[in-house]
Automatic annotation (TrEMBL):
It comes from the Bacteria. SUPFAM superfamilies: Thioredoxin-like. This is Thiol-disulfide isomerase/thioredoxin. InterPro entries: Redoxin, Thioredoxin-like_sf, Thioredoxin_CS, Thioredoxin_domain, Thioredoxin_ResA/DsbE_sf. Residues 22-158 form the Thioredoxin domain. The keyword DNA repair does not apply. It holds the Pfam family Redoxin. One of its GO terms (biological process) is cytochrome complex assembly. Its main location: other. Residues 1-33 form the signal peptide. It is found in: Cell envelope. Keywords: Cytochrome c-type biogenesis, Isomerase, Redox-active center, Signal.
């Protein structure tokens, strides 16, 4: 029997936290959030945020512009994951909509949720993770992303 290394198992199941997050968020997510399965095979930028996080809210217009500029087969799909209350997220997005899907992950205040799986052990927000088309982590950052960083991350994903 062939043994699989822990690293190989981690790579194989890199999408599992997203699937679990989607299952948790299915009823609470805004109606425009499509299923995660459609992004398999393409790079994904996960952005963990909350409505009470001022740096997160300042970063969202930059992410929205980045998401709108993505096109083609190798485009990076932005997915927001709000570590917040569903009602707060829906109210915020009603006032300030974004052009990328947003899921809601129910966690206790200060908990990292599924972002811990991607290296955010302290639960810092915003927290962004770039996954390649196979679901492997290419980059991660605690704190807001700049336009220059988004451009560099896009190049790394291609």
């Amino acid at each position: 029997m062939k043994r699989t290394s822990a690293r190989a198992r981690h790579r194989r199941f890199a999408w599992l936290p997203l699937v679990l997050c989607a299952a948790i968020a299915q009823a609470a997510a805004p109606a425009h959030a499509p299923p995660l399965e459609q992004w398999r095979g393409q790079p994904v930028l996960l952005n963990y945020w909350a409505t009470w996080c001022a740096p997160c809210l300042r970063e969202m217009p930059e992410l929205d512009a980045f998401a709108a500029a993505q096109a083609g087969k190798r485009a990076v799909q932005v997915v927001g994951i709000a570590l917040d209350e569903p009602a707060s997220v829906q109210a915020y997005l009603a006032r300030r909509p974004v052009r990328y899907p947003v899921l809601v992950e129910a966690v206790d205040y200060g908990q990292a949720g599924s972002s811990a799986r991607y290296g955010n052990r302290l639960g810092v927000l915003p927290y962004s993770v770039l996954l390649d088309a196979q679901g492997r982590v290419l980059r991660s950052k605690a704190g807001p992303l700049t336009a220059a960083e988004l451009a560099a991350w896009t190049a790394a994903a291609r």
